[in-house]
Amino acid sequence: MISAQLPAIVLLLTLLSAPVCSMIRNGDNAWKVAMFAVWLSVAAAIALMAQVWGGNTISYHMGGWAPPWGIEVRIDELSALVVILITLFGALVISALRESLRTVMRSHRHSLYYATFLLCMSSLIGITITGDAFNVFVFLEISSLSTYALIARGRDRRALIAAFRYLIMGTIGATFILIAIGFMYMVTGTLNMADLAVRLPEHTDNRVIQASFAFFTVGIALKVAVFPLHYWLPSAYTYAPKATTAFLAATATKVSLYVMIRFVFDVYGVEFSFTQMKLDVLLIPMSIAGILIASLTAMFQSDVKRLLAWSSVAQLSYMVLGMALLNVNGLTASVTHMFNHAMMKAGLFLALAAMIYRVGSSHLRDLAGIGRSMPMTTAAFVILGAGLVGVPLTAGFVSKWYLISAVLDKGWVWVAALLIVSSLMALVYVGKIVDVAYFKTAPAEHNAVKDVPVSILVPCWAFALLTIYFGLDTRATAGVADRVAQALLGIAS
Amino acid sequence: MLTGLFNYWVVIILMMAGLYVVMASRHLVKKIVGLNIFQTAVFILFISMGKVGGGTAPILVEGTTLYSNPLPHVLILTAIVVGVATTALGLAIAVRVYEAYDSVDEEDIAAMDTEDRRQESAVTTVTNTPS
Q1: Among A246, A277, A308, where does a domain finish?
Q2: Most CB within 10 Å of its CB: which of A71, A255, A326, A409?
Q3: Is A25 helix (H, G, I), strand (E, B) or coil?
């Protein structure tokens, strides 16, 4: 009984607990409500994955109205994986958030903050599970609006301007997607994504559909922060409140990438997107440029938060490259890296938030000697950093392995070489932090610095251990991604 | 030809005007206004596509069989709500920006930010005051 209603439950748990949180005045109680809701959603997300495991699809009709008239919730392995990504990593961040917020804002504001956070989470889940194109736009806007609000709460005044710039870019992107959906509706008269996928191939020569595809690509590329449309990302991540960055870096761009994959492969179709519109010709050079330029920029940052933000731009380009290669290995790499990078970057930002919690700054100079004063946090940071570089036995290695195999499948030895160069650049920027943390003497005023409370340390280590676990057991990541890739490319397995 | 597509010409003009204001204006509030014009253009696009020639409002009355398509209108009601929320949030942030920087001019703010970053790399400032 309950298992049939899971698609609605996984969305409603967080959506309904958001207003409840906003009405509770005591921040600690609001946190307990939020914790209860998010950990239940994690359970629901895992149960959903169990239902679709092996390549099943759930089609849930909201309110009992059959598609294409009613709104359909459609869950396959790809969406189930993304829902787990959002709920699990969101839940881990929320677990650490209470302690982390104490130094940022007064306690009577905490409940509103949790409410915004939950709203963001539920709308991201909504984007992932809905089967209705217009719903995607609405949820995308809800998630963006709550993200702007979350970023604007940063302590630095530059957080405000970062949020404002993101708001402008994000709204333009979302409105472009709205135009694209409008054009599709004009030609086909339907908004259901499965129905669109059936009807669009008849209209591939229609200029309106081609324009729709162009609007969609630019709009979603803004949201994914595909190079060179990444301009909002570094500042937004740098100035967002500490632990929030961990959540945003893990989910917001990944869910947008999910929307991109879903529309490009499923709704518009591989034939139209790649053979006719030549999306790969556009995306491959941009993503390779993004990988190199963003990694290079990250190497020269002295603020660790900004460094990690630039590294995110580079890592997102890996995912876009994998997608644009249009072979099974590439898409597998893209989907696996979506999950793995979300995990590693969330963990890194959370560990960094823990360091800021103690030393009050994320500047490299202030992190000197932190490996000795905060050994547990720094150790977690190093494991996650190794994952980012792609050291074997970590999750990052798995996705990079698939990506390089995909490039070699195409016979592009030079691109594979560039990918290895960019991994070396990652080694440089992660190594820079490790060097400062372990081999520099701490400034005198940091003598009293000690490790963070358990409530922050446990989520950090959970991320670090997951990074190792998914480096060894790839059934839930690469295994699923492989089946997803074959389904998206229309190859019968 | 030209008159038949009148709405769509208006959409294009409004959309380009809005985007231009967003890009060219330095004033944060004017950027929000531009964004609004841009979004309004899309609303008109949706509303125009729902019109069926000779159709009446989609209300069940005797004697009419031809109705305009209500779905795009309903969609746009939602999009208008989203637009209002975006405007409200954008203006709220602009107010906070004015309080923090004493200016709503983007270039002035950018100059102040550059100054902030220069100072940051010169001295360590450990601020821990809850806001």
Answers
A1: A277
A2: A255
A3: coil
**DSSP conformation class of A277:** T
For the residues of B63-123, what is the DSSP string, one character each?
T---B---HHHHHHHHHHHHHHHHHHHHHHHHHHHHHHHS--BHHHHHHHHHHHHHHHHHS
For residue A333, give its domain range: 280-493
Domain that holds residue B24: 8-51+68-119
Please count the structural domains in chain B.
Answer: 1
Nearest residue of B to residue A235, measured between CA atoms:
B113
Q: Which residues of A touch B120 (CB under 8 A)?
A: 363
Cα A471 from Cα A344, distance rounded (Å): 11
Query: How many separate domains does chain A show?
Result: 2
pLDDT at position A136 is 93
- Report if residue B130 sits inside a domain: no
Q: Are residues A256 and A315 in the same domain?
A: no
Could you tell me the pTM of the whole model? 0.92
Question: What ipTM describes this predicted complex?
Answer: 0.89
> Could you tell me if A477 and A423 lie in one domain?
yes
pLDDT digits (tens, 9 = 90+) for A256-301: 999 999 999 989 988 888 888 888 888 999 999 999 999 999 999 8
Q: For residue B109, what is the nearest residue in chain A, using CA coordinates?
A: A161
Inspect the interface and report whether the beta carbons of B79 and A178 lie closer than 8 Å: yes
